[in-house]
Amino acid sequence: QVQLVESGGGLVQAGGSLRLSCAVAASGRAFSWYAMAWFRQSPGKEREFVAGISWSDGSKYADSVKGRFTISRDNAKNTVYLQMNSLKPEDTAVYYCAARGGSLGYSRTAYDNWGRGTQVTVSS
Question: If you average pLDDT over every residue of the chain, what do you get?
Answer without folding.
Answer: 93
